[in-house]
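Hi there, hope your week has been kind to you so far. Please have a think about how the structure follows from the sequence. I've dropped the whole record in just underneath, so have a look:

_____
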Amino acid sequence: SLRALSGQSLADTVTPESQHKAHEILAEAKDGPTRWRELNHPGVDGVDRPMRYCAFPAGENGHSIVVGRDLDGIAALQQRLVETQRSLEQDYWRRRQVETRYRLLFQVAAEGVMIVDANERRVIEANAAAEALLGAAAGDLAGSGVVGHFAEAHQDVVEQMLVTLRGSGR
């Protein structure tokens, strides 16, 4: 409680790691306003409480006025940011693992597989089996029009399938 702090030196109310900063603030306040510094106070629950302080000289007797700002809200936001970032990194690595497995299966599949952009009607990617089936060199299918890789008699069916795919997503 604040009453328990009354009469104590600022340095006696902060964690040992913050005591040197508390002494600096009070020493600098004799010459004028200080810059803001973050100090931690030990909490009754064992969790340090961050505060930001600056000090101003008060009169000619060497006293100072110390102004503090509670940083608990900011600390909580920073903690949530760290947790969110950690979660995003975990999701990223899970996605990378899935993508690696997909790539491996895609490359070793005996069946020809083409990944197609139904809107653009272009091949995005094709595995080696598809390239061999269509007599294309490695990487030649990517970017090409998909419909042209089918016999002319079947191109209308493939075109209709792409239209259906765009409309239904299946």
Observations:
- The chain has a mean pLDDT of 88.
- The longest helix spans residues 72-108.
